[in-house]
Amino acid sequence: MATTISRIHRRDIIKSVLIVLPSIILIGIFVYGFIGNTIYTSLTDWGESAGLALHPVKHFVGLNNYKKLFTDIIQNRFRQDLVNMVFYSIFLLTGTLSLGLFLAVLLDRSVKYEGFFRTVFLYPMSLSFIVTGTIWRWLLAPSGGVNLIPEIFGLPRGKFLWISNRQTILIFNWQNVLTILLVPFTLLMIYLLIKNFIKADIKKGIIYSIAAFFFLLYIFVLRNILPPVLPYKEPHGFKLATIGIIIAAVWQYSGYTMALYLAGLRGLPASIREASKIDGATEFQYYLKIAIPNIRPITLSAVIILSHISLKLFDLIYAMAGADNINTGHPSINMYLTTFRANQFAMGAAMAVVLFIIAALFIIPYMVHSHKERKSG
Amino acid sequence: MRDINVKKSFFYGFLIVLALAYLVPVYMAIVTSLKNPAEISLPTAWAFPEHINFGGFAQAFSLLKTDVFNSLILAFSATIISAFIGSINGYVFSKNRFKGSEIIFTLLLFGMFIPYQIILIPLFQLLNFFGLYGSLTGLILAHIVYGIPIVTLIFRNFYDQISNSIMESGRLDGAGYFGLYFGLILPLSIPGFVVVGIWQFTQIWNEFLWGITLTRTESNPITVGLAQLAGGQAVSWNIPMAGALMAAVPVLIIYIFLGKYFIKGLLSGSVKE
Fold first, then answer.
1. Backbone torsion region of residue A109, taken as left when φ is above 0, otherwise alpha when ψ lies between -120 and 50, otherwise beta
2. How far apart are CA A73 and CA A50, in angstroms?
3. Mean residue pLDDT across chain B
4. Where are the domains of chain B?
């Protein structure tokens, strides 16, 4: 009896493996194999001369393309695109998270016609970026649409150039980019080391101290000794032309964070709300001190998904500003132009790899985390 | 008592203003699409059309009808095929776990989080090699393959909610591996198919990057057609607005009438339900 069961069991396992095998092979080739292939392409010179030839001659050039992306004067645009992407991500995240949470809290008290309001706040999410981008482009036209709104209140019409703006603010020198990136990390390390020493966790405290020490060493000493990343000053900053795109993106995705937060708030047991009421907490205090800390895992999921979306702003930027608008650029658009318009496949591949690495920094820890959770839960 | 009423009406007034703000783009698209080209000018952008004119829709439709048709074929075929792949995969990863199946599942999921630029060049090369570059078939293939992670995830979450005791009693009745799937699980899967179907259909309908990089003009999906229509400087704005509404209507209908299922698909994208 026992042997027949295990024989059936073994046969079931074989069936299971055979069922998922095609998916494993397809994902193996189309995801993992293709990632490897793109990384390889990025290390060649494909596209320099024989872009679309039947048998293009490729030479291995090591990290040359990456060096060009970060230091060559011709690739100035790519560096500004990276800066734009950082700003797009920061504003998309803070905008959608705060607006979404605000909407969720508004709807989290037995609101009449809640279904209607939820539908209205969430519908933009169902639409294509191309559809919404086309409409927003018209809304943000320089002398119409949104700029006319002040007239309703008797004010002079707005003059802001939304998408064709050429102004840059918060300008910094690319030679200082490492320092600027390291400052927040250094502050974080100092915060963590103080926290751990107070908690008397000496081991962790020492690790953070070492990290902080090396960061500070770079910022105050090494930076002045080492040769600069660029031989000349190169200004980059926040392009005002991106504001319109950020507004459209926040409009489109705040309903999504609202839906996530609302699901989280509804998942909290009613008893803790009652308990906090009995303790004399106001509604505001309930959300600030109890509800929001309790739905932190949702914020984590939302941050991951939204940073992923900010990497995909390609469609929205394409529809609102066109691929050739330098001021609203994004690495994904640059990758498209470099690869499919200029046929510089190797350089395009290098851009894709940079994008991929940035995405992987967020996604891999998240996937490991949720894998462990699935195993334990 | 009066105080509470004042507070309440203030609260609802605020909600209504917010809702109206969210609806502004739709209002703008509708009024602009119904105007005469001669009537469209920036200073009167907010005004109602003086004479309702469906010419914009007629022109947009004649310009975009092949693209709409392509998108319908694309979205229906890719959605149906990937839903069945997801269902059978989900059956394995939920009800027939084996040693290593969890890690395989996690490795499959990775495919839905990558920025697609990283696979675009080899995908283009592969389709070119098989003579599928530029065709709708190539685009359908791409959507099916890269849809595997999300459809598998949604079905797995769905089957996790079906109690294992049903499986046990099915086994006691003598049902085998596929008997359980076709006789028991599949008939219970209709809500799962609805969620996956809606999610995949809207995602594929809305997709743009592969459309613009992998298809030629005659097999462009609607998003590419619309982007080209709106990107041209010469056309008057009622046509792209009508085109945008045409591209929006199928997904909006799905969203408004089957919103509950749409949200389920949406939330499952955050890995845990």
1. beta
2. 23
3. 89
4. 1-53, 56-268
**Closest residue in B to A14 (Cα–Cα):** B98
Which of B40, B63, B87, B117 to mutate against chain A (most A CBs within 10 Å)?
A: B117
C-alpha dihedral (A269, A272, A277, A279), degrees to nearest 10: 170
Domain extent listing, chain A: 87-167+240-334
Residues of A in contact with B108 (CB under 8 A): 23-24, 27
Q: How far is B233 from chain A (nearest CA, A)?
A: 12
Contact A339, A41 (CB under 8 A): no
What is the signed CA dihedral for A269, A270, A273, A277, rounded to 10 degrees? -150
Tell me what ipTM this predicted complex has. Answer: 0.91
pLDDT tens digits along A161-206: 888 888 888 888 888 888 888 888 889 888 988 888 888 888 888 8
**DSSP string of B233-264, one letter each residue:** SSS-THHHHHHHHHHHHHHHHHHHHSHHHHHH
Phi-psi region for residue A260, left (φ > 0), alpha (ψ -120 to 50) or beta?
alpha
Q: Give residues with Cβ within 8 angstroms of A342, minimum separation 6.
A: A47
Within chain A, residue ranges assigned H as helices are 2-27, 34-42, 64-71, 76-107, 114-126, 129-139, 149-152, 177-198, 202-217, 223-225, 242-267, 270-278, 283-285, 292-294, 296-311, 314-321, 331-336, 345-376
| Residue partners of A115: CB distance under 8 A and separation at least 6 | none
3-state secondary structure of A233: coil
CATH number, domain B56-268: 1.10.3720.10
- Count CB neighbours of B131 within 10 A: 10
Q: Give the fold, CATH level 3, of A87-167+240-334.
A: MetI-like fold (1.10.3720)
Residue from the list A26, A38, A363 with its beta carbon closest to the beta carbon of B145: A26
The first and second tokens of residue A365, run together, are 């820890």
CA distance B109 to A367: 8
Q: What is the pLDDT of residues A213-262, one digit of tens each?
A: 888 888 888 887 877 777 788 889 998 899 999 999 999 999 999 999 99
A86 touches chain B (CB under 8 A): no
pLDDT at res. B272: 44
DSSP sequence for B169-190: HHHHTT--HHHHIIIIIHHHTH
The answer to whether A61 and A42 have CB atoms below 8 angstroms apart is: no
| Distance in angstroms (rounded) separating the CA atoms of residues A208 and A250 | 36
Q: Nearest CA to CA, how far is B29 from chain A (Å)? A: 6
A and B: number of Cβ contacts within 8 A: 252
Strand, helix or coil for residue B163:
coil
